[in-house]
Amino acid sequence: MNVRLFPSTVRPQTRGFTMIELLIALLIGIFMLGCLSIMVQDNKRTSNSQNALMKLQDYERVAMTMMTDVIQQAGYFPNPNTNTAASMFGLQDVLYGSYYANQIGFATAGQFLYGYHNVPNPINVLANSDSINIRFETQNGDGVLNCFGGTNTTGANKINANFFFTFNGQLWCENETPTAYYLVGDEQNTNDPNPVYVESLQILYGVNSAGTASNVDSYKNAAQMSSTDWLNVISVRITLTLSNPLFSSSIPNQPAYVSISRTVSVMNQTGI
């Protein structure tokens, strides 16, 4: 009988990891986790910076769009064939209710713009900041916006008095009703990690001194304006300064404040 002998199966000897190998693997894992953590933090900082920059740009756009839309309506009134600025915009005080009451601005017949320069009282604006009053008349349903973004739905013609000012790090708007709304600024949003504050609002008035043309021969702040100058305003130059949410002592080349300017043509003078 033939007997075939198979060699016995010999299992190889197994061995675990040495302590040195485990330590090396652990160090590699810790290094990779550290790199991943750095990447996550960098992405978070980049995202926060981008969001803060987008908010700053949105604030600039909202503020300038709203102020431009209202200021360019200054002096507007329907039916210029039968009406004049003097007949439409008479002498009157502009009362702003509980916030800023009894402000006298329009002291000359036909005047539709008035402002304050570096006057903290009675309007309590930010230091080194200006405010501006704008008047125009609207017809019922004509779609002309006031500083609240509202229109005339009274059923009759209506004189709109709009007041832009700064207060508590924000740009505010107040209509002739005793109500004020803030347009931009994070003073009331204390949980924002990258707040944006309004630092100042500067207003210059482009004047044609002779009052006989539509070109500007000088720009003046409100304190430099005469009663005649207020009737000869051709344009308004707005400069809004906001805090830079990206500014930090640890980040070089970032300014503490960002300013944006725009020159707005006044409809009554230019027809634009």
Write the layout of secondary structure elements.
Blueprint (H helix, E strand, L loop, with lengths): L18 H53 L13 H4 L3 E5 L3 E7 L6 E5 L12 E9 L19 E10 L2 E5 L5 E5 L13 E10 L10 E3 L6 H5 L1 E11 L13 E9 L1 H4 L2
Antiparallel strand pairs: 1-2, 3-4, 4-5, 5-6, 6-7, 8-9, 8-10, 10-11
Kindly state the percentage of residues in helix: 10-25%
Widest β-sheet, arrangement of strands? 3-4-5-6-7
User: Could you give the order of the helices and strands?
Assistant: HHEEEEEEEEEHEEH
Overall body shape: elongated
Oligomer: single chain
The number of domains is 1
Main sheet attributes: strand count, strand direction, barrel closure? 5 strands, antiparallel
Kindly name the structural category: alpha+beta
Enumerate the spans where pLDDT stays under 50 for 5 or more consecutive residues: 95-102
Radius of gyration: 32 Å
Q: What is the strand tally? A: 11
Strand content: 25-35%
Roughly how many Å apart are the termini?
120 Å
How confident is the prediction overall: mean pLDDT?
A: 79
Question: Number of helical runs?
Answer: 4
